[in-house]
Amino acid sequence: MTTRPKSRTPRPAADQPIEPPRGGLRAPCPCGSGKRYKQCHGRVRAGAEFVARPFEGLPHETDWVAFREIVPAATMRARTVDGDDVTFATVLPVAWPALRRADGSVFVGVQAADASADASRDLAAAMDAALAADGPGPVTHVDARRSTARLQDRLDLDTPPVLEVHEGFDFWVDGVLDTDPGEAEDPSDPLSALAPQVRASLERANAAVVPTEKLTSAESAYWCRIGDNVHLRWVIATPEDRFLDALARLHVTTVDGDTAGSTLGPGTRFAGFFRAYGLVVPVWDLPGDMSAEGTEEPLASFAERFQDALAVSDPLDAEQRRARAGLTSRQVTLR
């Protein structure tokens, strides 16, 4: 009987980064563990342990989550600790992680693909790559392994970001492209140099954009219209257990003896909620003719009732517990 000699090549340590195999992330890990690369040393290469609430500690944490999950076209202007002004956009042309324009302005795509298990670190790495670039151009790849800095380390937290929701993505090319698709004001600008590519990306993005408006009666609440359906999506930082307790208390009460306290009034319905980056995002279905402006007053009234319900510390009664169980099962999925 013969035995196969043991390999003299030691297996890489569990915390030692290994480059991905030629077969891609789903191929067997080169370390010989038998696992797929993405489930083995791919985790090490991608970075630190998963951060469930990556934007915690940033001003407007709930809006950072909204920009990642529910807002199609928007910008957030912020300042770094070094005094650089940076514009975070929900999406950039061709899904670039970041972009430095000819005038030196820097844009970062908030919805760009993750490079690690920490969205905050990914965005900081993309931002720093654009700030450090020798000249204008897109950042097409982010290696978050080369930096441990996060947005919480790199942004001036005493300067709140300035948010703006747009009807489309024309802000990509503001001041860059003139009315003639074949001409550009500044050939050194990456948006001009790639005008045909950018224009194609712009047309696709504008065709698919969901009309969205940021409401003022509650922080990080967004009205949107998807086809004939109208919704309210509200990103809140209240812990999930407390959110469900408060909503259950409201659900078994009525407003003006007519509608459940968990709704926003006649014709509205609490559809459910989902979780995003450690926060809860409840969703309401609204009547098709309910505008963003018309949603403000009902939302303000609900927000006041919700705060009152949060202040109650008594245990839920039997009816409220049944309501809570039903509300917990209302999980929604964005499509």
Total number of distinct structural domains: 3
pLDDT average, as an integer? Answer: 85
Radius of gyration: 24 Å
Low-confidence stretches: 1-9, 176-184
Outline, from the CA principal axes? globular
InterPro entries: DUF5926 (IPR045970), SEC_C_motif (IPR004027)
Pfam families: DUF5926 (PF19348), SEC-C (PF02810)
Domain DUF5926: 54-335
Protein name: DUF5926 family protein
Q: Could you please describe the fold and organization of this structure?
A:
The chain is of the alpha+beta class. The protein has three domains: 23-50, no CATH class; 61-208, no CATH class; 212-328, Yope Regulator, Chain: A (2-Layer Sandwich), CATH 3.30.1460. Helices cover 27% and strands 18% of the residues. It is built from nine helices and 13 strands. The protein has helices spanning 41-46, 61-69, 119-131, 151-154, 190-193, 195-208, 240-251, 292-310, 318-328, and strands spanning 74-79, 85-89, 98-100, 106-109, 137-139, 162-165, 212-214, 221-226, 229-234, 254-255, 259-260, 269-276, 279-286. The strands form three sheets. A six-stranded mixed β-sheet has the order 5-3-4-2-1-6, covered by helices on one side. A five-stranded antiparallel β-sheet has the order 7-8-9-13-12. Strands 10-11 form a two-stranded antiparallel ribbon. A hairpin with a 5-residue loop joins strand 1 (74-79) and strand 2 (85-89). The chain starts with 40 loop residues before the first helix and ends in a 7-residue tail after the last helix. Residues 1-9 and 176-184 have low confidence and may be disordered. It comes from Aquipuribacter nitratireducens. InterPro entries: DUF5926, SEC_C_motif. This is DUF5926 family protein. Residues 54-335 form the DUF5926 domain.
